[in-house]
Amino acid sequence: MRVGAIDIGTNSIRLLVADIPEGDGGPLAAVARAGEPCRLGRHLGRTGVIDSAMAERAGEVAGEFARRARALGAVRTLAAATAALRHAANGSEVADLIAARAGVRVRILTGDQEAQTVYRAVVQGLGASAKRSACIVFDIGGGSTEVVSGLGERPGRWTSLGVGAVSLTERFLHGNPPSGPEIDALSEHVRAEIMQHCASMPAQTPVLAGVGGTVTVLAMMDRELTAYEPALLEGWRISSERLRNLIERLRRTTEDERRRWPAMGEGRADIVIAGALAVRALTERFPSDALLCSTQGLRYGLARLAAQEESGGDAPATEPPLG
Fold it and tell me: CB atoms < 10 A from the CB of 243, how many?
């Protein structure tokens, strides 16, 4: 079954059109992927609302993505929004605006729904070894970070941290490059969030996997790739020592220098340091031999849910309904 998924995030909007195998047990086949920076969360921490111009831009992008999915033969497209719309005072109004432009209902996910959907998508994407192992998966977005521990495809404990690459940058990082005190203040804040909300999770894990733009950039830097190639990034292992060196390299660069890196991508250079520091704090909390890069985040989980809904089936017991 061919379906579409639109992930409306705090920093960007992403599209996936994919063929889902019968029974939802095997790997999906991506037909098309796309992403556009939109920055719905710009100044959200200060104003409490989503800017009208950013909302209109999101509606245009989502509309284009929905039309692309239909043109490619998607029989159902599922659109879901995350932290920006979840926390904004005008989140429901923005969801309605985007839905009107796209012709697809926009669902605002709770943190728990987002976390569980991401976890299962990541484990399924990583394959047999992850499906047989205890895992911790984290997804660093623009406005929140989802952290889930589980066994194989079954999530156990999960939480949604109120820190993301956009919100952390706006709150803490003002220098170019950021100063030492700014770096320290951000890191301390993230560690406090992790300590408070992840206390009941395992002390360490055999499989630590990260998903999101920051992790993708780190993996591309580690592989010395100049273009995004999911097949070369999925499951890539970044050793603890190499990860520390990559983050240290990032934090010493200016935004203009980062914009010239082929691995950076549009809309990432100004927020990647904050994301990388959050990655560092998470790897300190969950020691593992290496960080695995996943390219199959929320939109992959949404695609599977779209197929389940189209076929009239229920989501797995480990997944919350997306109302």
Answer: 22
